[in-house]
Design goal:
40% of the residues lie in helices and 18% in strands. The protein has helices at residues 17-28, 44-54, 70-80, 101-104, 110-118, 132-136, 141-172, 185-216, 234-262, 372-383, 389-399, 438-446, 465-468, 471-482; strands spanning 8-13, 35-41, 58-62, 85-90, 98-99, 270-277, 280-285, 290-292, 295-298, 303-309, 314-317, 324-327, 336-340, 346-352, 364-370, 425-427, 433-435.
């Protein structure tokens, strides 16, 4: 008749209650390991007494317990019984110490850990006490842990590479940016491309390791033990500080080079004064004597845009050109420059990229890039003004952005409609009444806050039309308003 094997009798030596009781609970929760914890001792004297009384097969010593004399334990047990197995368990990672489960060993590793010592092996005689510690430590546990960790790291790393490649491939199939249409867009798009790839890698790095950990290291059925306690790792912390720092500095260097490329000066650049106001754009060509509500540019030639604002902060932005610059109020000392060299013939849209009021979303103007011959033809056509002051006034109505606030068909707007305005009776904020004659219209253009009509805000209309418009242009606008009565 085959006698059933006796359970392995284990004695735990530690003065730390967490170590002893935690290890006891762990072993008792695994009946399949066929282990019986026969006692817990806190010093050598108790261990010697328990050794004779309890007859353990294995003594587990808390390697990190400073109140235990590890050398005395080993020396005594080797001298008393060279076949008695002594295992040193450490709560700290190390090259030669076993790592205890509750705070440093994952629950999934416990079965393998138990298998390493539950089946007794013949111990070789030790020649010296100084070799006892090395012989007592489980020979394969630390190596097994390192191999397991390396295996998981390699698998997760390969998955990161695969997911990153798939993300980059997928991003390449999506038009994340509008068509580049300027020389300045090229270095900016190169930066965007590199940033998208780095973002794809970081996304894969985070998500893959997270999902892999959830799937592979999930809690097993029936496992009620505490999760692994992780201590700090200075080397890892240094790596995840230094590597991002180097990455940020590298991007800062590449970004500064890209910025320099966008500001490269062309001495043959065509100059355009860009005046923004709520809520319109006006483009003046001082060398050509042209004012337009649309920005016309020749392809392949750099345009130097002098940006300013008549009221609040605006921001000049054509997405296809990539570059963007604020337009500030305050006069000539606040004029900002922006250089653009169009590379594609077509029509684009300049938008205000700075929240500037309730009609901010509608502050748009066409940007038309022409071949040089077509641009020259436009310049010739714009340089010749009509002999009719009404026709000229209609041109100034759009060129100076009056159409952004004043309708011509009676539709209510930010400012009063021009239809039927001339010679009408106007009640002012002080309850006085005036006739909208030539003098009233002239004052309303050059000093808009002098005679404010109730229902319209003060300081909304730009205050600098007396500087931007010549007296002849103001008279043309008045003649155009007269024509609408």
């Amino acid at each position: 008749m085959i006698q059933p094997e006796k359970p392995q009798r284990v004695l735990i030596a530690s003065s730390h209650a967490l170590f002893g009781q935690g290890l006891r609970s762990l072993l008792q929760a695994r009946p399949e390991a066929d282990v019986e914890v026969v006692g817990i001792v806190s010093n050598l004297e108790e261990a010697i007494s328990a050794l004779d009384r309890l007859k353990p097969d294995l003594v587990i010593v808390d390697y990190d317990d400073e109140r235990l004399n590890r050398d005395e334990f080993l020396a005594h047990f080797v001298e008393v019984d060279r076949k008695l197995r002594v295992v040193l368990l450490s709560l700290q990672d190390g090259e030669e110490a076993i790592v205890y489960d509750r705070r440093s060993m994952a629950a999934a590793q416990i079965d393998d850990w138990l298998e390493n010592w539950s089946a007794p092996k013949a111990a070789e005689p030790l020649s010296a006490i100084e070799n006892a510690e090395k012989a007592a430590i489980l020979p394969n546990a630390a190596a097994y842990t390192r191999r397991g960790n390396m295996k998981h790291l390699i698998i997760a790393g390969l998955l990161v590479v695969v997911v990153t490649a798939l993300l980059i491939l997928a991003l390449g199939q999506v038009d994340l940016l509008p068509t580049a249409a300027s020389v300045q867009a090229q270095p900016i798009d190169q930066m965007f491309d590199l940033e998208f790839k780095v973002i794809a890698f970081l996304f894969a790095l985070i998500v893959v390791f997270m999902v892999y950990s959830i799937v592979v290291f999930r809690r097993k059925a029936g496992d009620t033990t505490d999760a692994r306690h992780i201590e700090g790792n200075p080397r890892l912390e240094m790596l995840w500080t230094v590597i991002p720092l180097i990455t940020v500095l590298a991007f800062a260097f590449m970004g500064s080079r890209a910025l320099g490329e966008t500001q490269r000066i062309d001495p043959q650049a065509i100059e355009v004064d860009v005046i923004s106001s709520q809520w319109s754009w006006s483009f003046e060509y001082p060398e050509l004597g042209i004012v337009s509500d649309k920005l016309y540019l020749p392809v392949g030639q750099q345009a130097l845009l002098h940006l300013s604002s008549a009221d609040v902060i605006h921001s000049f932005w054509v997405p296809e050109f990539r570059v963007k610059q604020d337009a500030l109020p305050g006069g000539d000392e606040f004029v900002r420059d922006l250089r653009v060299t169009p590379t594609e013939i077509g029509e684009y849209t300049v938008r205000c990229a700075e929240l500037c009021g309730r009609r901010h979303a509608y502050m748009e103007s066409p940007v038309i890039v022409l071949a040089q011959a077509d641009f020259d033809s436009w310049v010739t056509a714009e340089s010749g003004l009509s002999e009719d002051p009404v026709a000229r006034g209609e041109k100034w109505y759009t060129s100076f952005g009056c159409n952004a606030c004043h309708s011509l068909d009676g539709t209510p707007g930010v400012g009063p409609t021009w239809q039927g305005l001339y010679e009408s009776q106007r009640t002012l904020a002080d309850n006085s009444t005036v006739t909208a004659d030539d003098a009233y219209l002239h004052t309303s253009i050059v000093d808009p806050n002098a005679q404010v009509v109730p229902g319209f805000l003060e300081n909304l209309m730009p205050q600098n039309f007396a500087e931007r418009m010549s007296e002849a242009q103001i008279q043309d606008v008045i003649e155009f308003i007269k024509s609408l009565r």
